Amino acid sequence: MKIEIVDYKGMKVISPAGEIDMHSSPILRKEIMAFVGQRITPLVVDLKEVTYIDSSGIATFVEGLKGAMSYGGKLKLLGLAPQIREIFSFSKLDKVFEIHSSADDIIQG
Amino acid sequence: MKIEIVDYKGMKVISPAGEIDMHSSPILRKEIMAFVGQRITPLVVDLKEVTYIDSSGIATFVEGLKGAMSYGGKLKLLGLAPQIREIFSFSKLDKVFEIHSSADDIIQG
Amino acid sequence: MPRTQENNRFILTIPADARWLAIVRAAITKACELAAFPPTEAGHIVLAVDEACSNVIKYAYKHDPFQKIVLTVKVSDRRLEVFVDDEGPRVRLEDLQGRSLDDVRPGGLGMHLIRRAFDTVAFDGRKRRGNRLKLVRTVSEEKA
Amino acid sequence: MPRTQENNRFILTIPADARWLAIVRAAITKACELAAFPPTEAGHIVLAVDEACSNVIKYAYKHDPFQKIVLTVKVSDRRLEVFVDDEGPRVRLEDLQGRSLDDVRPGGLGMHLIRRAFDTVAFDGRKRRGNRLKLVRTVSEEKA
Ligand SMILES: Nc1ncnc2c1ncn2[C@@H]1O[C@H](COP(=O)(O)OP(=O)(O)O)[C@@H](O)[C@H]1O
Ligand SMILES: Nc1ncnc2c1ncn2[C@@H]1O[C@H](COP(=O)(O)OP(=O)(O)O)[C@@H](O)[C@H]1O
Question: Among B63, C68, D25, D142, which residue is least crowded by beta carbons within 10 Å?
């Protein structure tokens, strides 16, 4: 996994690429928690370049969400490929996270 | 590897797809040798769906060529992806086989 | 692998470190192809084997990367059997409980993903030291 | 894999049957990624390991699928070492000669492909039974 922070119309977006597993999820966790530390909201993660995610990746997002909730913030996900979306819905987390189709969606929403 | 015989403007084209290795090359060999048995010329193989080839695959084409040459026939290859073309040139076989970019090329040629 | 009928399986031995999970996934993905699993089922199987290895790393070996995990993968037509061997303390299946999926918290998802992917999830009681998790899946016609 | 510094390698054991070459390629492809080889070099390495295994199947074991091949793959930063172990009759590197590339005939290409991909191609003379082929490659800056 590689990770970039992309500026999209003034909104900072965490953009991981590749496979999120137990080996790479700590790197994602660090970026998300840095945003949480700055009390950023919404905390936006673009998953369009993510091809694989396991339960450690899912756990990382749950942690990020809990962190954001501590200051009334939100965590928003976008760009989920079908196999990625599927594991969120299997985990019953598709209702807990806000899943958007595009960054513009979030800006307008 | 899967293999199909495709009819292209009246010309029969052997079209393997996937990986040609020591496990799958006997299947390709059988098809090529069936063409040789019928003294078909040119013997056309379309490699555009082939993602991998090892020396057993290359050997199969050399055998097909020798078979075709026994009755004055030709063996023509088309649709080689860069990594496939590269192994033919490394083997110094790109000069021995006729390598074409399209089936129309062969029909007009 | 003695010289018997056992030419239907391969064995992958990795250090107990998450860095090697990518190798496991690559090998299991190909094994699913050889066994003719459709892509969705293959995806579930690959994820489940990743989860089983992650659990061994975390719980059986407590992140000691000098331990090893041995995967034995038996490939048949439309059927895959994966044995995950570790040398950690003995566990029983009853001890491995995921969270309720309605309880939103990090963790507790792995066992659910393993049970979703495999028809059989069991520990082999005959093993004398460590654990051997047996995972079996047959291609489901309707999901294909 | 005793509990030493050896947490930098995985071991893949396959039956000596070409059916399993796809598993080997998948694992080596991932290993090349972990070692940070660029795609062209990785392609050459994967092909070369496939050729080495094919040769063991054909020559060391004469197509007996109940024999086994053991691949030990040591992954470092920008470096890959692959050991191919068989239990066939002893061979020496001098006995493995490919054809001259100018002599067009089937076969004789494998050894050339192995030498192209690897900086070191050698048999480990210390092995007491069978053969251990040692293949080493470092990322080449200029080819990258
Ligand atoms: N291989 C194992 N050895 C020991 N305990 C395990 C093993 N696998 C799972 N467990 C136990 O089962 C629980 C549920 O596992 P799992 O569903 O994968 O969730 P998580 O690992 O996120 O907690 C773990 O918290 C752990 O206590
Ligand atoms: N593992 C091996 N054991 C014994 N002989 C081998 C082995 N590998 C290669 N050889 C010998 O070296 C020759 C050249 O091998 P190679 O270049 O791979 O071409 P090919 O297998 O097409 O003949 C083979 O024909 C064979 O005689």
Answer: D142
